[in-house]
Amino acid sequence: MIDEKYYKQAVKSKSIDDSLLKVIRVVPCYHEFIRYVQWHNFASSTVQELNLPTLVLHYENYATKFNDTLHSLLHFLGFDDLTLGSAVLKFVDGKSYMSEYYNISEVKAAQSAMEKLASSNIWDKIKHYFPSP
After folding, report:
1. What is the pLDDT of residue 131?
2. Of the candidates 92, 93, 104, 95, the residue with the CA atom closest to the CA atom of residue 130
3. Core-most of 45, 56, 114, 124, by most CB within 10 Å?
4. Which strand (E) or helix (H) includes residue 109?
5. Spatial separation of the C-alpha atoms in residues 70 and 54, rounded to whole Å
6. Terminal CA-to-CA distance of the chain, rounded, Å?
7. CA distance 105 to 112
8. One digit per residue, pLDDT tens: the chain, 133 residues?
């Protein structure tokens, strides 16, 4: 079982204690949640350390504020809106992974573990993907 392989690696990790592992282990593919948070934590600290410019984009903003989101991205990258012309592809929205793949207890377990693993900066950016307590 693939989760067992990653469980053994997580047990050896210094950043994941036993209580956290017990909480998240009930979530299918929990190791992907751990990797997601760790990647964002490392990226955030690197950006701060190197004082790099950043732009945070949220998936759902493409569905609710497509033009504003596209404009922000183009501006951040140094392009004007006219540069792309008709090259902009249609955004397909409506993807909701939480409700399709995880039951409520798994979502709560993932939320609890990710809140503990994530830096406060990262948690502020991702907590809206979880239901309010």
Report:
1. 78
2. 104
3. 114
4. helix 104-117
5. 15
6. 32
7. 11
8. 445 555 555 555 666 777 887 888 888 888 888 889 889 999 999 999 999 999 998 888 888 888 888 889 888 988 876 666 566 667 677 767 667 788 888 989 999 999 988 999 999 999 988 877 6
Q: Are 107 and 131 in contact (CB under 8 A)?
A: yes
Q: Two tokens at 81?
A: 């809106």
**Token pair of 7, please?**
């469980």
Q: Which amino acid is at 26?
A: V
CB 120 within 8 A of CB 37: no
What is the identity of the amino acid at 42?
A: F
